[in-house]
Design brief:
elongated; Rossmann fold; single chain; five-stranded mixed beta sheet; seven-stranded mixed beta sheet; alpha/beta; Hect, E3 ligase catalytic domain fold; about 45% helix
Length: about 575
């Protein structure tokens, strides 16, 4: 036997390679790592090898060649340490017939390595086996078939609301029914703390620093300490070190409201492990499936807070404005960015990002002074709280938009429509499953199967879009009464407030449209439309008890700036 000059071991060193994936669990006894080791050790000894070394990949699919144990074995072969490779069968090497073909036809012969596949009767020292290539193709077909079956099972489970992903930090599998989740009290308390800090106006980095100072371990170390095995990269950070990306991932997870979101990602092929973000219309969302950690109102408020464009903190004041991300340009739809005067840092203002970008996508600056804006918003909140306290029925009418009877009839109609679509979707799943079984058994040919499955999938795709739209409408309708009560309670809480706070603005205001100031008769007037949470752009009706507040600001150049309340029809 040929011996390389770079070998550090005996020429008869043999690699015994074992692999087991989830796909092989159906035959776990014969394919177990322990059983493979016994077989390979026995056969290697029978063939005269005494110097053996195991390379193992447990729980890794054969469709990828990027397996730690397999790669170590390849490196050992390239270094000249290995003269033979023993596997239980060729599928252990992999289920990619092109890659396995390269191994058996090129790589092993180039490195003078003997290949023995025990169950397949393959031994390269005994000559070529004409069935080897065919076996590699069948091994890949098996992986493709398993992938297809798993997709069908996942589709059936995912479309009835069974979570397809592991529970997020703060939840755990229900001991009584592992398919669903329950709240894990210790981690859930941390999640609530993160949401509360976000409501209080803390940024992602501030929240991460606060958790670190409190000595709270991050999710990776929390799972590790509780014996929970989670995939993905293993953090090398200190146990109490939190990253702002981790905080953001927690804040945007809708599952904390008690919902299940399935089909968030997909892969283009069973050979590709990269997951791609699924379009919204292809996701399946089920509301209130498990116990919530945070209420829906809190979650939605936080989404508004973190969705706005946040500029880097000014290097001088180090304090962002409470209006960051809330001011919109009605002309171009862009955000207004926060600035301060370079000569006088006390003068802070907002202006349209698309006008200042240099591209001049917006005609005007939509400039507005921060101190002027604060006076306007505080004045309007005072008027709103007074109106809510003295004319509650009018506020409820403005929020509801139409009578309760109309809402009730509309909800019933939409629920009936949604039930019909769900029933049809379930029926299509059953039809597709029977169609697949008929194709496998030979009752229908591949051409017929392709045409019928394409038609079913097209109908399901259209239904999925309708179901998603209806669910979103029903979610908004179902939470509307709750929003009314909560909003009125929130408004009353700020009765008599003398100063704006970040939380006050976040709880009451969705966004503010700032129009460009116009000068007339020596006075510059600027229109502002405040869109409140729940009730939108709401004009407070003319009431003697609630007079409009005149706001006049003298600028440094002596120009008088006044505020004109928006005229909104109700």
């Amino acid at each position: 036997m040929k011996q390389s000059s770079v070998k550090n071991h005996h020429a008869d060193t043999v690699a015994l390679y074992c692999r087991l994936s989830r796909d092989d669990n159906m035959d776990s006894e014969s394919n177990s790592i322990q059983n493979q080791k016994k077989i390979l050790q026995k056969v290697a000894k029978e063939k005269g090898y005494t110097d053996t070394i195991f390379f193992v990949d447990d729980g890794i699919t054969g469709t990828t060649m990027k397996r730690p144990g397999f790669q170590k074995m390849i490196q050992a072969i390239e270094a000249g340490y290995i003269s033979a490779v023993f596997v239980k069968d060729l599928s252990r090497l992999g289920r990619n017939y092109i890659e396995v073909g390269k191994l058996t036809e090129e790589f092993f012969p180039q490195h003078d390595v003997r290949l023995v596949a025990v169950s397949d009767g393959v031994d390269s020292d005994e000559g070529d086996n004409e069935f080897t290539s065919f076996r590699n193709i069948m091994n890949e077909w098996y992986a493709k078939d398993i992938s297809k079956k798993r997709k069908i099972v996942n589709k059936l489970k995912g479309n009835v609301g069974v979570p397809l992903s592991p529970p997020p930090y703060g939840h755990m599998k229900n001991p009584d029914d592992p398919r669903f989740w329950v709240v894990e009290p210790e981690a859930a308390a941390v999640v609530r703390r993160i949401f509360q800090l976000a409501l209080d106006g803390c940024g992602l980095a501030e929240i991460a620093a606060s958790l670190e100072q409190a000595g709270i371990v991050n999710p990776t170390y929390y799972w590790r300490a509780h014996g929970t095995n989670r995939g993905g990269s293993k953090s090398t950070l200190e146990p109490t070190k939190w990253g702002y990306t981790t905080v953001k991932k927690i804040l945007i997870r809708q599952e904390y409201c008690g919902d299940v979101i399935n089909f968030k990602t997909y892969s283009k092929s069973y050979k590709m492990k990269q997951r791609i973000e699924n379009p919204e219309e292809n996701k399946a969302i089920f509301l209130n499936v498990h116990e919530a950690i945070v209420d829906r109102e809190t979650w939605e408020k936080v989404q508004k807070l973190i969705s706005g464009t946040r500029r880097k903190k000014p290097s001088v004041s180090q304090e962002p404005s409470i209006f960051n991300g809330l001011l919109k340009c009605p002309e171009c739809g862009g955000n207004l960015n926060f600035h301060f005067n370079q000569k006088n840092h006390e003068i802070k203002f907002f202006s349209c990002q698309n006008h200042n970008s240099g591209l001049r996508k917006c005609s005007f600056t939509h400039y507005i002074r921060l101190d002027f804006l604060e006076q306007v918003v505080l004045g309007e909140i005072h008027r709103l709280t007074q109106f809510a306290n003295e004319y509650e029925d009018d506020v409820i009418k403005a929020i509801a938009g139409h009578s309760a009877k109309v809402v009730e009839n509309e909800l019933a109609r939409k629920h009936r429509e949604l039930d019909a679509l769900r029933a049809r979707d379930k029926e299509l799943d059953n039809l597709f499953e029977r169609l697949y079984e008929d194709n496998v058994s030979g009752k229908i040919n591949d051409d017929r199967f392709s045409k019928m499955s394409k038609r079913y999938e097209q109908e399901q795709g259209e239904n999925a879009k309708k179901i998603k739209a209806l669910r979103e409408e029903l979610r908004k309708k179902d939470t509307q009464q709750m929003d009314m009560d909560v909003f009125l309670e929130t408004v009353r809480r700020y009765t008599g407030a003398t100063k704006l706070t970040r939380r006050m603005v976040a709880e009451l205001i969705e966004h503010i449209d700032v129009y460009h100031a116009e000068k007339q008769d020596g006075i510059t007037t600027q229109k502002i439309v405040i869109h409140h949470n729940c009730i939108g752009a709401f004009e407070i009706p003319d009431r003697r008890k609630i007079p409009e507040r005149d706001i006049l600001l003298e600028t440094r150049k002596g120009v008088a700036l006044s505020y004109a309340p928006a005229q909104i029809a109700i």
